[in-house]
Amino acid sequence: xxxxxxxxxxxxxxxxxxxxxxxxxxxxxxxxxxxxxxxxxxxxxxxxxxxxxxxxxxxxxxxxxxxxxxxxxxxxxxxxxxxxxxxxxxxxxxxxxxxx
Length: 100
Known about the structure:
4 strands, alpha+beta
């Protein structure tokens, strides 16, 4: 699985929660596994191509919502030697925190 963190910022807007909500609705309609954080959205998809398609769709959604300028940042974790999911990465860290 490819784990992707992305941030879409409609420039010039003070409150972003309404825009984030629209992106989350998009992810839910598409059946994409996601994790919302205070600063970004993380998705888990099978391929980098699918990740870019989803991020592009979310980016374009901002323009359909009336935004005139958008900044999007993407970070990709594409590990191919083992199958990892979002929660696996968190569990691994927490195990080490607890001395496991």
